[in-house]
Amino acid sequence: MRAQIASTALLGIIEQAGLGVLTLAENLSREDLLRSRLTREEVSRQLRILTDSLAALPPELQRAMPEIDWPGWLRAGLQLMEPRGEACDDALWFAVESLTPALLLWLRVYRRNQPELFLMRA
Questions:
Q1: What does 39-94 look like in DSSP terms, one character per residue?
Q2: Residues sharing a CB contact under 8 Å with residue 87, sequence separation 6 or more, in sequence order
Q3: In angstroms, rounded to a whole number, what is the distance separating the alpha carbons of residues 90 and 22?
Q4: Are 28 and 36 in contact (CB under 8 A)?
Q5: pLDDT tens digits for 81-109?
Q6: CA-CA distance, 21 to 71, in Å (whole number)?
Q7: Distance between CA atoms of 107 and 84, rounded to whole angstroms?
Q8: pTM above 0.85?
């Protein structure tokens, strides 16, 4: 039961962080995002929350959502921890432009088709 509550809470954190990433980066080019110190820092912080929360989801929940790019998120999370440089910049932009929108899309699909994954039960 506690595992279900924790997983549901993590899914909520993931959705909120993903929405934060997309809101902050909306209409920004790669160059603008990388150049903007404050926006880049906050997007990076939201992505760290997102990657940490995704990694904390139980394996059975990850298996229930096979369309999510779990290996891509793992790689992005590792690259985002590196000092600023090309690998970190590429991971940041890939997460903003590709991984996060796809993740949020799939979470909406799963919420509609498998609502039990998102129910908080005690």
A1: HHHHHHHHHHHHHHHHHHS-HHHHHT-TTS-HHHHHHHHHHHTSPSSHHHHHHHHH
A2: 79
A3: 16
A4: yes
A5: 988 889 999 999 999 999 999 999 999 99
A6: 20
A7: 30
A8: yes
Domain boundaries, the chain: 2-116
State the chain's mean pLDDT as an integer. Answer: 92
Question: Do residues 93 and 33 lie in contact, with contact meaning Cβ atoms separated by under 8 Å?
Answer: yes
* Rounded Cα–Cα distance for residues 88 and 1 (Å): 38
The tokens of 117 are what? 């994954």
- Give the H or E element holding residue 6: helix 2-25
As a CATH number, domain 2-116 is: 1.20.120
Q: Give the count of beta carbons closer than 10 Å to the beta carbon of residue 12.
A: 13
Give the tokens for residue 27: 């209409």
**At 2, is the pLDDT very low, low, confident or very high (cuts 50, 70, 90)?**
low
